[in-house]
Each structure stands twice: as C-alpha cells, then as structure tokens.
Amino acid sequence: MAASELPGNIVEPAVAPGRVAGLGHLPRLVRDPFGFFLSLAELGDVVTILIGRKPVHLITTPRLVRSVLLAGGEVYRRGRVFEKATKTFGGGVIVAEGEAHRRQRRLMQPAFGRHRIASYVPEMRAAVERGVAKWRPGMVLDIPRVTHEMAVDSLVHSLFKADLGTGAAERIMGAFPGVVSGIMAHTLYPADWMERLPLGVNRRYQKSSDEVRAVVDDVVARSAGSDSAEASLLNVLLKAHEQGDGYDEALLRDEIVTLLIAGSETVATTLAWVLHEIAGHPAVEREVVDELTAELDDAPVQPSDLARLPVLDRVIKEALRLHTPNWLLTRRTTEPTTLGGYRIPAGAEVGFSLTALHRDPRVFDSPQAFEPDRWLDDNLAGFSSDAFLPFGVGRHRCPGDTFAWAELGVAVATILRDWRLAHKPGAKVRELPMVTVQPSGLRMVVQRRPL
Question: What is the edge-to-edge ordering of all strands in the sheet holding 4-5?
C-alpha cells in the first residue's frame, strides 16, 4: 500500500503488505524479523506495520533513527518494549523518563568515567580468569552460558565490589531466559490481555523477575550499613537511599536489578558473538593473537593496553555491527509530529531495529559479511560512521557503553591469549531474537593455545 499524500508534502506512511487478519504482520515479524525489516526500506523511510490491530511505525534509515533518539522528551517517550520491561526493571534508569531519568543517570555517571573504568579492569580480568580456570582441553562449552557467567561476575565485582553469595549467581543465570523471553513476548502480543493468560512464558517471566529481585534484596541487605571504604556504584546508590535523594527502597532495588540484568546481558551476548565470529575466521583469529602477543607479551592485559590493540578493537566493533543486540526498540509520540516528511499522530508507537539498520546494504557494503577491516581509517570513507549506533545516541544513550567496551576487550584478550575455541562439529548456530539477539546452539570446543 503506497504512502498517501497529505497537504504540504506530508504523507502518511505506507502500510506493509502481507498482514494477516487478527495478527497483522506478526507472523512475518516472528518468522524472519531482519529480513522483514530490510524488505520495508523499498516502501519508504517510515513504514507502518500492525501487531494485532496496533500500528507501529518502523523507521528504515539511520538518519531518522538518530533524529528520534536526539529529539527531546517532549516529543518522544520510551515505548512499548520499555513499558513491558517494567515488570523486571521497575523504575530503573533504563526505563525511567524525564527528570527521574536525568537524576538517576547523573547519580551513576561518575562510575563510568574514564579513570573509574581503568580501575575496573583488574576485576574484569579476574572474572574471566575465574571462568576459564574451570576449562579443560577438549571440553564442550555452552558459550552463551559461559559468557553470561563471566559478565555477571565481572559486573558484580567491578561496579558493586560485592559477592553475590552462595548460589546467587546460579539463580541470576537461571532467571535470564525467563526475563528476556518474557519482555519480548509481552511486546509482541497482539492483545495486552494475553499477558494475564496462564501461559508458560508469562509464568516464567513473573517467576524470573521475582527471583532476580529476591537476589538483589539479599545483596542490599548484606551491603547496607557496611563500612567498606572501597568506592562502588552500589555504595553510591545505597548512600542516595539513606539520604533520601528520591531513592526509596523500591527504586534502589529497581536500579540494582537494572544494572545487574541490562548491564550484563548485552555484554554477554556480544562476547558470545565475538567468539563465534573469531572461530569462524581463522585469519582474523591469527591477526588478533599476533597483536596480543606483540603488545602484551606474557603480561595480563592492563587498562593502558586497550588503546594499543586496534585489531581487537575492529573485531569487537564489527561483531557489534553485525550482531547488534538490540533488534527492536521503540518510542512513543507525545504529540502529533512529522518524521522525515511522514505524519505521525500523538500516542503512536515508533519502532526501529539497530540490528537491521547495521545490515542495510544501502549503508554497508557486503553487510552480512564479517569484515573487521571495514573499520580501517582508509575504508571509513565508504560509509557514514553516524550510521553505527550500537549504544544509541542522545540522552538515553547507554550510560555504561565505555564499561561494556572495556569489558569486551579485556575478556577477548584474556581468553585468546591461552585458549583456542572451535565450533563443535555439527553444531548449528542460529539467531534467536529475544530482547537481545541470542546465539542459540553455540557450542564450542576449547583447547590450550600452543606456546
């Protein structure tokens, strides 16, 4: 259906073909989300799809996505994905709006400054070393589980300067699938009443959210009133709670849950994809290992080393482009507006896929290929770096982007120095779009790297 003309060269977005009665475009979205997103570009920069009977205006260009992310909160607020995440995150910074978001972000921002990030590197490295200490040559690893364990361990010891206690890490790990699948299921339900049905995904979402909150309650109870002189973000949040500062007990818990889940999920998923791509590209692996050997020799990675590892930096950047975790994000208009010449009514849902945008052949040559050298300075003229938005942009840009980047660099360097990972023969890796794009079926065999 073509876009319809309105006065003043403003048009209504075209409606995508192929909708199904009662379900809208949900079958196409679930069956092949990235192919579906990319197919919409030929219909316009903004295209309307239906989830059930609910219209969602999908943006197909990086330029318009950037304009939405940079727009003030008086035009766009967080949308359906974030709304459905409140069962887990409550009022945490990832779902907060307006002044509450500014206050919460301002409170935690110093924890992500450059010097603080450098101070976290030893804990990040130690978390990875604790993980690989369990490996034995020839073991077959469930890589997403391994990387989640490392990410949770790293975050808790780096930002919280705490220990989850016996069994708590396993409880958090067990809750991850229920949380990420529940948020996406509730986002894509064609009718909101489906959230109340006694479906397995709904029960798991509630149970998993409750489990994470119970673990966090224990962390807060054991940390409150401690006289530790070691600065941590957890201490900052506890102090804000003790002094008032708008942090009641519920918000304190929400913030810690948000950091624990959102702060580890994206890193863990990206690290899994990095290891997958390196294993599939032996020449890239050799280049990374040669760089690590030349720059680090036998010493463990230090904060100052990360800036001297350009090959590793390009590999991580390319994995983030090809496997951007956030495959569906949303905003909601607060008033009638225009977006790239398209009329968008008040209260409308606006959506975009960073994963699909980063695979757009209009922006990146051979977008499905894993080519770290596309990020060499001599090659950057071939595309606009403004189109690369793995952490978002604007006031809601991921506050922990520098933490995540350092954590990924430390993890890959620490693992590849001593270990070689290869795909388990016969294993079939596929993309599983939950809240993040999970590498389902990623099993790898580990061997000691020859000296």
Answer: 4-5, 11-12, 342-344, 337-339
